[in-house]
């Protein structure tokens, strides 16, 4: 089952939740003896969406890949000249910066008149590793939130402190989407709800397309060569045919697995708050579903989720 129209795929899906070792009886949500399968699945999707919002809120940013336009004035802390190179360093709001689409500069006066920098005169300061041009997605959160642009954009800083306004359009976060149509084994294209970040290349042009995992009972990795849209719904072309069939609604993501597991823990916490029945599972002191003294509480699951997300928090 796909998410409702206009709602992007959450970071974890009902299929992943119901198969994960969380110790939750998902059939007890919503409560009632005459609840249909469709109603249960719909509420599970709602729980996944809430858990996704919790993760984004805790990290102070959207974790999925998004296309953003941001304005910074300089020179100041967020826009500084590098004396040794003459280049300019801009600290953006979100990370990791996957790709810089365009940079323009204007005198910071009204009316503003922007001049675009030529392609090749800007790049991410710390490129993301293990996503673009990879045969398998990364399992760690790496990358930066600053970009380097040519010093010609500042014109020597003759306009003084905060005399320049920079307009930056960039893609940040990890590509994350779901199939909106069934995909068959042997096919080299998939239809998805969001193409953002999948078909881009690194600043050198050498590494093209992101790698992700298709999460279902026949899980497999896939590498994207191109996308029909920069963002929003479209079709992704893969570098190799699919090995298995995958149903509409299946998650396809380059997001680190720790973010997904944190959202699963958030979902379990929400389920317990709603009065779900914890199943009898064998756990150890290290288990996520419970400890040697009994199942974990909703608050304990939230604490564990936030520990996993600490590495991804935006701190500037």
Task: Describe what you observe in this structure.
By secondary structure, this protein is an alpha+beta fold. The chain folds into two domains: 187 residues, no CATH class; 107 residues, no CATH class. The chain is 18% helix and 26% strand. It has four helices and 18 strands. The chain has a six-stranded antiparallel beta sheet, with no helix packed on it. Strands 2-9-5-6 form a four-stranded antiparallel beta sheet, with no helix packed on it. A hairpin with a 4-residue loop joins strand 12 and strand 13. Helix 2 packs across helix 3 and helix 3 packs antiparallel against helix 4. The protein is globular. The two termini are 38 Å apart.
Question: Which SSEs are present, and which pair or pack?
Answer:
Elements: H1 14-19, E1 24-25, H2 37-59, E2 66-74, E3 79-81, E4 88-91, E5 97-107, E6 115-116, E7 122-124, E8 146-149, E9 164-172, E10 176-178, E11 189-192, E12 211-215, E13 220-227, E14 234-238, E15 251-253, H3 257-273, E16 277-278, E17 290-291, E18 294-295, H4 298-309
Antiparallel strand pairs: 1-16, 2-9, 3-4, 4-8, 5-6, 5-9, 7-8, 10-15, 11-14, 12-13, 12-15, 13-14, 17-18
Helix pairs in contact: 2-3, 3-4
The number of strands is: 18
Going by helix content, strand content and strand pairing, the class is: alpha+beta
**Main pleated-sheet profile:** 6 strands, antiparallel
Provide the domain count. 2
Task: Supply database-style keywords.
alpha+beta, 2 domains, 316 residues, globular, 4 helices
